[in-house]
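Colleagues,

For the teaching module next term, I've prepared a clean inverse folding example: a structure given as C-alpha coordinates, and then the sequence designed for it. I'd like students to try predicting residues themselves before seeing the answer, so please don't circulate the second half yet.
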Protein backbone atom coordinates (compact mmCIF):
# COMPACT_ATOMS: atom_id res chain seq x y z
CA UNK A 1 0.00 0.00 0.00
CA UNK A 2 1.27 3.47 -0.88
CA UNK A 3 1.83 6.16 1.72
CA UNK A 4 -0.71 8.45 0.06
CA UNK A 5 -3.43 5.77 0.16
CA UNK A 6 -2.63 5.06 3.82
CA UNK A 7 -2.95 8.78 4.59
CA UNK A 8 -6.36 8.84 2.91
CA UNK A 9 -7.48 5.94 5.12
CA UNK A 10 -6.31 7.78 8.25
CA UNK A 11 -8.25 10.86 7.14
CA UNK A 12 -11.37 8.77 6.54
CA UNK A 13 -11.04 7.24 10.00
CA UNK A 14 -10.71 10.73 11.46
CA UNK A 15 -13.82 11.88 9.57
CA UNK A 16 -15.90 8.87 10.62
CA UNK A 17 -14.96 9.20 14.28
CA UNK A 18 -15.65 12.95 14.18
CA UNK A 19 -19.10 12.34 12.70
CA UNK A 20 -19.74 9.71 15.39
CA UNK A 21 -18.75 12.23 18.06
CA UNK A 22 -21.12 14.84 16.60
CA UNK A 23 -23.98 12.34 16.31
CA UNK A 24 -23.54 11.11 19.88
CA UNK A 25 -23.31 14.66 21.18
CA UNK A 26 -26.60 15.64 19.55
CA UNK A 27 -28.71 12.49 19.74
CA UNK A 28 -27.06 9.53 21.47
CA UNK A 29 -25.16 10.39 24.63
CA UNK A 30 -27.88 12.53 26.29
CA UNK A 31 -29.94 9.33 26.53
CA UNK A 32 -27.17 7.31 28.22
CA UNK A 33 -28.07 6.36 31.74
CA UNK A 34 -25.18 4.42 33.23
CA UNK A 35 -22.56 5.16 35.83
CA UNK A 36 -19.66 6.49 33.75
CA UNK A 37 -21.86 9.08 32.02
CA UNK A 38 -23.77 10.09 35.15
CA UNK A 39 -20.63 10.94 37.12
CA UNK A 40 -19.92 14.66 36.82
CA UNK A 41 -23.27 15.39 35.15
CA UNK A 42 -26.20 14.30 37.30
CA UNK A 43 -24.46 15.10 40.59
CA UNK A 44 -23.74 18.79 39.87
CA UNK A 45 -26.57 21.22 40.71
CA UNK A 46 -27.77 23.48 37.90
CA UNK A 47 -25.88 21.74 35.11
CA UNK A 48 -27.46 20.88 31.76
CA UNK A 49 -27.31 17.10 32.04
CA UNK A 50 -27.98 16.44 28.33
CA UNK A 51 -25.28 18.88 27.19
CA UNK A 52 -22.86 17.48 29.78
CA UNK A 53 -23.33 13.91 28.59
CA UNK A 54 -23.03 14.95 24.97
CA UNK A 55 -19.77 16.78 25.61
CA UNK A 56 -18.44 13.84 27.60
CA UNK A 57 -19.02 11.60 24.58
CA UNK A 58 -17.04 14.02 22.41
CA UNK A 59 -14.18 14.11 24.92
CA UNK A 60 -14.01 10.32 25.09
CA UNK A 61 -13.88 9.89 21.31
CA UNK A 62 -11.35 12.71 21.03
CA UNK A 63 -9.12 11.20 23.70
CA UNK A 64 -9.42 7.75 22.14
CA UNK A 65 -8.34 9.06 18.72
CA UNK A 66 -5.47 11.02 20.20
CA UNK A 67 -4.11 7.99 22.07
CA UNK A 68 -4.53 5.85 18.95
CA UNK A 69 -2.62 8.22 16.69
CA UNK A 70 0.13 8.45 19.30
CA UNK A 71 0.36 4.64 19.36
CA UNK A 72 0.54 4.57 15.55
CA UNK A 73 3.20 7.27 15.66
CA UNK A 74 5.28 5.24 18.10
CA UNK A 75 4.80 2.14 15.96
CA UNK A 76 5.97 4.08 12.91
CA UNK A 77 9.17 4.99 14.75
CA UNK A 78 9.85 1.29 15.23
CA UNK A 79 8.95 0.30 11.66
CA UNK A 80 7.92 2.26 8.58
CA UNK A 81 5.62 -0.64 7.65
CA UNK A 82 3.44 0.23 10.62
CA UNK A 83 2.12 3.27 8.77
CA UNK A 84 0.87 1.36 5.74
CA UNK A 85 0.12 -2.06 7.22
CA UNK A 86 -1.30 -3.94 10.22
CA UNK A 87 -4.75 -2.43 9.62
CA UNK A 88 -6.64 -5.18 11.44
CA UNK A 89 -4.81 -4.78 14.77
CA UNK A 90 -4.82 -0.99 14.42
CA UNK A 91 -8.57 -0.73 13.84
CA UNK A 92 -9.20 -3.18 16.70
CA UNK A 93 -7.01 -1.07 18.99
CA UNK A 94 -8.98 2.06 18.07
CA UNK A 95 -12.30 0.36 18.81
CA UNK A 96 -11.06 -1.01 22.14
CA UNK A 97 -9.64 2.37 23.19
CA UNK A 98 -12.81 4.26 22.33
CA UNK A 99 -15.21 1.70 23.80
CA UNK A 100 -13.12 1.39 26.95
CA UNK A 101 -13.20 5.14 27.55
CA UNK A 102 -16.99 5.13 27.31
CA UNK A 103 -17.11 2.96 30.42
CA UNK A 104 -14.47 4.98 32.23
CA UNK A 105 -15.86 7.69 34.56
CA UNK A 106 -14.66 11.21 33.80
CA UNK A 107 -14.70 13.05 37.11
CA UNK A 108 -15.10 16.64 35.95
CA UNK A 109 -14.23 18.13 32.59
CA UNK A 110 -12.02 21.05 33.58
CA UNK A 111 -8.75 19.11 33.50
CA UNK A 112 -9.25 17.73 29.99
CA UNK A 113 -10.69 21.02 28.72
CA UNK A 114 -7.62 22.96 29.82
CA UNK A 115 -5.34 20.31 28.31
CA UNK A 116 -7.33 20.32 25.07
CA UNK A 117 -7.17 24.11 24.80
CA UNK A 118 -3.40 24.08 25.00
CA UNK A 119 -3.03 21.21 22.52
CA UNK A 120 -5.55 22.84 20.18
CA UNK A 121 -3.51 26.03 20.17
CA UNK A 122 -0.50 23.95 19.10
CA UNK A 123 -2.59 22.40 16.32
CA UNK A 124 -3.72 25.81 15.10
CA UNK A 125 -0.09 26.96 14.85
CA UNK A 126 0.75 23.87 12.78
CA UNK A 127 -2.37 24.54 10.70
CA UNK A 128 -1.03 28.01 9.95
CA UNK A 129 2.23 26.51 8.71
CA UNK A 130 0.35 24.09 6.46
CA UNK A 131 -1.75 26.87 4.96
CA UNK A 132 1.29 29.03 4.23
CA UNK A 133 3.03 25.98 2.78
CA UNK A 134 -0.03 25.35 0.59
CA UNK A 135 -0.04 28.98 -0.53
CA UNK A 136 3.58 28.78 -1.66
CA UNK A 137 2.97 25.43 -3.34
CA UNK A 138 0.08 26.85 -5.36
CA UNK A 139 2.27 29.80 -6.25
CA UNK A 140 4.98 27.45 -7.52
CA UNK A 141 2.39 25.46 -9.48
CA UNK A 142 1.09 28.54 -11.30
CA UNK A 143 4.61 29.85 -11.87
CA UNK A 144 5.80 26.54 -13.33
CA UNK A 145 2.82 26.40 -15.67
CA UNK A 146 3.14 30.02 -16.75
CA UNK A 147 6.93 30.39 -16.93
CA UNK A 148 8.18 26.81 -17.06
CA UNK A 149 9.47 27.34 -20.57
CA UNK A 150 12.21 29.97 -20.59
CA UNK A 151 11.46 30.78 -24.22
CA UNK A 152 7.69 30.93 -24.09
CA UNK A 153 5.31 32.50 -21.60
CA UNK A 154 2.03 30.64 -21.23
CA UNK A 155 -0.47 33.50 -21.17
CA UNK A 156 -3.38 31.20 -20.33
CA UNK A 157 -1.85 30.18 -17.02
CA UNK A 158 -0.92 33.80 -16.29
CA UNK A 159 -4.57 34.70 -16.83
CA UNK A 160 -5.72 31.85 -14.57
CA UNK A 161 -3.37 33.01 -11.81
CA UNK A 162 -4.60 36.61 -12.12
CA UNK A 163 -8.24 35.49 -12.08
CA UNK A 164 -7.58 33.38 -8.99
CA UNK A 165 -6.06 36.40 -7.27
CA UNK A 166 -8.96 38.62 -8.37
CA UNK A 167 -11.65 36.33 -6.98
CA UNK A 168 -9.75 35.71 -3.75
CA UNK A 169 -9.19 39.42 -3.12
CA UNK A 170 -12.82 40.13 -4.07
CA UNK A 171 -13.90 37.58 -1.47
CA UNK A 172 -11.55 39.20 1.07
CA UNK A 173 -12.96 42.67 0.36
CA UNK A 174 -16.59 41.52 0.50
CA UNK A 175 -15.88 39.46 3.60
CA UNK A 176 -14.39 42.39 5.50
CA UNK A 177 -17.26 44.67 4.47
CA UNK A 178 -19.75 42.10 5.77
CA UNK A 179 -17.76 41.84 8.99
CA UNK A 180 -18.11 45.61 9.50
CA UNK A 181 -21.85 45.37 8.79
CA UNK A 182 -22.77 42.37 10.92
CA UNK A 183 -20.17 42.57 13.71
CA UNK A 184 -20.18 46.16 14.97
CA UNK A 185 -21.56 45.39 18.41
CA UNK A 186 -18.51 46.55 20.35
CA UNK A 187 -15.24 48.42 19.86
CA UNK A 188 -13.17 45.26 20.14
CA UNK A 189 -14.76 43.78 17.03
CA UNK A 190 -14.09 46.93 15.00
CA UNK A 191 -10.46 46.87 16.14
CA UNK A 192 -10.03 43.22 15.10
CA UNK A 193 -11.50 43.86 11.64
CA UNK A 194 -9.46 47.03 11.10
CA UNK A 195 -6.23 45.34 12.19
CA UNK A 196 -7.01 42.47 9.81
CA UNK A 197 -7.37 44.90 6.90
CA UNK A 198 -4.14 46.66 7.80
CA UNK A 199 -2.23 43.38 8.05
CA UNK A 200 -3.56 42.25 4.66
CA UNK A 201 -2.58 45.55 3.03
CA UNK A 202 0.88 45.52 4.61
CA UNK A 203 1.50 41.89 3.59
CA UNK A 204 0.33 42.46 0.01
CA UNK A 205 2.32 45.67 -0.46
CA UNK A 206 5.40 44.06 1.08
CA UNK A 207 5.10 41.08 -1.23
CA UNK A 208 4.89 43.35 -4.27
CA UNK A 209 7.94 45.36 -3.22
CA UNK A 210 10.29 42.64 -2.00
CA UNK A 211 12.32 41.02 -4.74
CA UNK A 212 14.33 37.80 -4.82
CA UNK A 213 11.76 35.82 -2.83
CA UNK A 214 9.57 32.89 -3.74
CA UNK A 215 6.46 34.92 -2.90
CA UNK A 216 3.82 35.96 -5.39
CA UNK A 217 0.45 37.59 -5.47
CA UNK A 218 -1.18 34.14 -5.38
CA UNK A 219 0.46 33.40 -2.04
CA UNK A 220 -0.53 36.77 -0.63
CA UNK A 221 -4.15 36.30 -1.73
CA UNK A 222 -4.45 32.87 -0.11
CA UNK A 223 -2.93 34.10 3.16
CA UNK A 224 -5.25 37.15 3.09
CA UNK A 225 -8.30 34.92 2.65
CA UNK A 226 -7.22 32.76 5.58
CA UNK A 227 -6.64 35.86 7.74
CA UNK A 228 -10.18 37.04 6.93
CA UNK A 229 -11.58 33.66 7.93
CA UNK A 230 -9.75 33.80 11.27
CA UNK A 231 -11.07 37.31 11.88
CA UNK A 232 -14.63 36.08 11.26
CA UNK A 233 -14.02 33.15 13.61
CA UNK A 234 -12.90 35.60 16.30
CA UNK A 235 -15.65 38.21 16.03
CA UNK A 236 -18.41 35.63 15.62
CA UNK A 237 -17.30 34.14 18.96
CA UNK A 238 -17.26 37.46 20.83
CA UNK A 239 -19.51 37.56 23.89
CA UNK A 240 -20.74 41.05 22.95
CA UNK A 241 -22.80 39.59 20.09
CA UNK A 242 -26.53 39.82 20.88
CA UNK A 243 -27.14 36.32 19.53
CA UNK A 244 -25.16 33.99 21.78
CA UNK A 245 -25.92 30.79 19.86
CA UNK A 246 -23.38 29.04 17.70
CA UNK A 247 -24.91 27.92 14.40
CA UNK A 248 -24.24 24.58 12.75
CA UNK A 249 -23.05 26.53 9.68
CA UNK A 250 -20.22 28.03 11.74
CA UNK A 251 -19.21 24.62 13.02
CA UNK A 252 -19.39 23.15 9.51
CA UNK A 253 -17.20 25.90 7.99
CA UNK A 254 -14.61 25.54 10.75
CA UNK A 255 -14.59 21.77 10.28
CA UNK A 256 -14.10 22.21 6.50
CA UNK A 257 -11.09 24.48 7.07
CA UNK A 258 -9.63 22.00 9.57
CA UNK A 259 -10.22 19.15 7.12
CA UNK A 260 -8.48 21.11 4.36
CA UNK A 261 -5.46 21.57 6.64
CA UNK A 262 -5.32 17.85 7.47
CA UNK A 263 -5.77 16.90 3.81
CA UNK A 264 -2.86 19.13 2.81
CA UNK A 265 -0.81 17.65 5.63
CA UNK A 266 -1.59 14.20 4.27
CA UNK A 267 -0.84 15.18 0.67
CA UNK A 268 2.41 16.98 1.41
CA UNK A 269 3.61 14.15 3.64
CA UNK A 270 2.82 11.53 1.00
CA UNK A 271 4.41 13.62 -1.75
CA UNK A 272 7.65 14.14 0.16
CA UNK A 273 7.73 10.44 1.04
CA UNK A 274 7.27 9.50 -2.62
CA UNK A 275 9.59 12.02 -4.22
CA UNK A 276 12.38 12.18 -1.69
CA UNK A 277 14.40 9.19 -2.99
CA UNK A 278 14.35 10.59 -6.55
CA UNK A 279 16.16 13.71 -5.38
CA UNK A 280 19.21 11.80 -4.14
CA UNK A 281 22.41 12.73 -5.95
CA UNK A 282 24.03 9.71 -7.49
CA UNK A 283 27.57 9.26 -6.25
CA UNK A 284 30.33 6.97 -7.42
CA UNK A 285 31.18 5.82 -3.93
CA UNK A 286 28.81 3.07 -2.76
CA UNK A 287 29.25 4.03 0.90
CA UNK A 288 28.19 7.57 0.12
CA UNK A 289 25.14 6.26 -1.69
CA UNK A 290 24.18 4.26 1.41
CA UNK A 291 24.57 7.36 3.56
CA UNK A 292 22.36 9.41 1.23
CA UNK A 293 19.72 6.66 1.20
CA UNK A 294 19.74 6.41 4.98
CA UNK A 295 19.28 10.17 5.24
CA UNK A 296 16.33 10.01 2.85
CA UNK A 297 14.71 7.23 4.88
CA UNK A 298 15.32 9.21 8.06
CA UNK A 299 13.60 12.23 6.52
CA UNK A 300 10.66 10.06 5.48
CA UNK A 301 10.36 8.65 9.00
CA UNK A 302 10.31 12.13 10.51
CA UNK A 303 7.66 13.13 7.98
CA UNK A 304 5.43 10.22 9.02
CA UNK A 305 5.89 11.05 12.70
CA UNK A 306 4.91 14.66 12.04
CA UNK A 307 1.83 13.50 10.14
CA UNK A 308 0.59 11.35 13.03
CA UNK A 309 1.43 14.09 15.53
CA UNK A 310 -0.70 16.46 13.46
CA UNK A 311 -3.56 13.95 13.42
CA UNK A 312 -3.28 13.45 17.19
CA UNK A 313 -3.45 17.17 17.92
CA UNK A 314 -6.24 17.49 15.35
CA UNK A 315 -8.19 14.85 17.27
CA UNK A 316 -7.95 16.99 20.41
CA UNK A 317 -8.88 20.12 18.46
CA UNK A 318 -11.98 18.29 17.22
CA UNK A 319 -13.30 18.17 20.80
CA UNK A 320 -12.85 21.94 21.17
CA UNK A 321 -14.54 22.51 17.82
CA UNK A 322 -17.65 20.50 18.73
CA UNK A 323 -17.94 21.76 22.31
CA UNK A 324 -17.12 25.39 21.49
CA UNK A 325 -13.84 25.31 23.41
CA UNK A 326 -15.21 23.57 26.45
CA UNK A 327 -18.12 25.91 27.13
CA UNK A 328 -21.75 24.94 27.53
CA UNK A 329 -22.99 23.61 24.20
CA UNK A 330 -24.34 26.29 21.88
CA UNK A 331 -22.81 29.29 23.70
CA UNK A 332 -20.12 31.71 22.58
CA UNK A 333 -16.58 31.30 23.82
CA UNK A 334 -14.16 34.08 24.66
CA UNK A 335 -11.39 31.47 24.53
CA UNK A 336 -12.18 30.73 20.88
CA UNK A 337 -12.20 34.45 20.08
CA UNK A 338 -8.72 35.05 21.47
CA UNK A 339 -7.27 31.85 20.04
CA UNK A 340 -8.60 32.73 16.57
CA UNK A 341 -7.36 36.31 16.50
CA UNK A 342 -3.96 35.45 18.00
CA UNK A 343 -3.63 32.66 15.43
CA UNK A 344 -4.26 35.25 12.73
CA UNK A 345 -1.53 37.51 14.07
CA UNK A 346 0.90 34.60 14.23
CA UNK A 347 0.04 33.54 10.68
CA UNK A 348 0.72 37.02 9.33
CA UNK A 349 4.00 37.17 11.24
CA UNK A 350 5.02 33.80 9.79
CA UNK A 351 4.14 34.94 6.28
CA UNK A 352 6.01 38.19 6.81
CA UNK A 353 9.05 36.23 7.93
CA UNK A 354 8.96 34.13 4.78
CA UNK A 355 9.10 37.38 2.80
CA UNK A 356 12.04 38.98 4.60
CA UNK A 357 13.99 35.87 5.63
CA UNK A 358 15.87 35.47 2.30
CA UNK A 359 17.00 39.09 2.53
CA UNK A 360 17.88 39.00 6.25
CA UNK A 361 19.78 35.71 5.88
CA UNK A 362 21.18 35.72 2.32
CA UNK A 363 23.67 32.94 3.04
CA UNK A 364 20.95 30.42 3.89
CA UNK A 365 18.74 28.46 1.52
CA UNK A 366 15.03 28.50 2.22
CA UNK A 367 12.91 25.64 0.88
CA UNK A 368 9.43 24.52 1.63
CA UNK A 369 7.99 25.24 5.01
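(Answer key — instructors only)
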Amino acid sequence: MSVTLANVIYLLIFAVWTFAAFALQEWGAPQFDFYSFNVGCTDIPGIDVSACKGENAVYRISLGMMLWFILVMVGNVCSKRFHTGFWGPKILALLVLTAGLFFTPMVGQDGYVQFARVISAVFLVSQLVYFIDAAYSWNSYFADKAYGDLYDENRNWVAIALMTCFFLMLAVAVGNILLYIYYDHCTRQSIFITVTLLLIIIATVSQLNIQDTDSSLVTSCIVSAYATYLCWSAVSSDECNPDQTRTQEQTLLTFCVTSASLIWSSYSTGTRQTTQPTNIIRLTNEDDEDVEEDEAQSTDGVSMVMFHASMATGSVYMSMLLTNWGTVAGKQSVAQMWVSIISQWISMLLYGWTLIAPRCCPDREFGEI
